[in-house]
Amino acid sequence: MYSHGDGYLKINTYAGAGLLLITFIVVVAAVVLSLGCADDGGTGVNESVDAGTLNDGMELSGQWDGSTVNASTGDNFSIRLEENPSTGYQWNLTTSDGIKIVADEFELPENEGVVGEAGFHVWTFRIMDDGNQQIDAIYKRPWENVTGEEETFSLTLEVEGESVVPADEDDTGYIYGTADVDNIEIMKMESFPVQVSVRATGNLKDGCTVIDEANITTAKKGNNFNVHIPTKRPKDAMCTQALVPFEINVPLDVYGLEKGNYTVDVNGVQGSFPLQNDNVLE
C-alpha cells in the first residue's frame, strides 16, 4: 500500500468526500422527515399554526392553543382536543356570543376496545358575528375547584364580515349533537301497501339533552336508507351527568319500492328488511 503513496492519498481524498456527501444527504433527509411529522403533531390534523388565517372547514388541534387568527362570518370550523372521560376529567368549553356551537361529540380511538383509552372531544362551530371572538376551555373534573394548574385551551378570532342571522331565533341557545344509538328494530305493518318504520333505542349523555325530532332526516340512495337522529340541549344549562335512555320511531317512505332487500342505517347502527312484492297498488 505505501509503495503507491500518491495513489493511496488520492483514494483517501475521494473516500472522504464521499463520506461527507452521504452525511449531508442523511442530515437533509432527517430534517425533511421531521418537518413532515410535525405537521399534525401526532393528532392526524394537518395544519400550520403560523398560518394566521382560519379557513372554512378547518379542524384545529391543541397546537392552536393561545393563537390569534383571522376569520370570516359564516365560516364553519372544528376543534379536536384529547379527552379521557374514564378518569373523570373533561373539557369545559365556553365561547363568546358571536360563536355558535353546532355539534359537540366525543370520538373513540380506532382501538376502542381498550378500557380507559383516551379519545377526542370534537366541537364544530359557526362564526355568527364580526369583531373579536373568543373560545376558552379548561380540562378538569366538574366537581373540583379551579387551582390554576389545569390544562387549558384558548383561541382568539378577529372576525370580519356581515353578521349571520339564524333561521330560528332560538337556534343560538342550543348545542347540537348526534344521538348515541345502541339498537334498531325494523317493523313492518301487516297491510298493503306495506308500511315500515324503524325503532331506535339508546342513551342521551345527560339530563338536559333531548332528541331534536324536528331535524330528524331520512335519505334514500338505491336500496339503502340513511336515518340521522340529532340531539340538542340548552347551551348554558347545568345538567345532571347520568345517562338517559330514549326510544323513538321513524317512519320510512317505502311506497312504490320494488321487491327486494333494503338496508337501514341509523346513526351508524344497521339493519335490513325484505319486500316480497312491489310495494305499489295496481
From TrEMBL:
The record's listing under InterPro entries reads:
Chagasin-like_sf, Cys_protease_inhibitor_I42, Prot_inh_I42_chagasin
- What GO MF terms are annotated? cysteine-type endopeptidase inhibitor activity
Question: Domain of life, per the record?
Answer: Archaea
Under the heading Pfam families, the entry gives:
Inhibitor_I42 (PF09394)
Give the record's keywords alphabetically. Answer: Membrane, Protease inhibitor, Thiol protease inhibitor, Transmembrane, Transmembrane helix
The transmembrane residues are 12-36
**Gene3D superfamilies hit by this protein:** 2.60.40.2020
Q: Where is the Proteinase inhibitor I42 chagasin domain?
A: 70-156
Q: What is this protein called?
A: Inhibitor of cysteine peptidase
> What organism does the record attribute this protein to?
Methanohalophilus halophilus
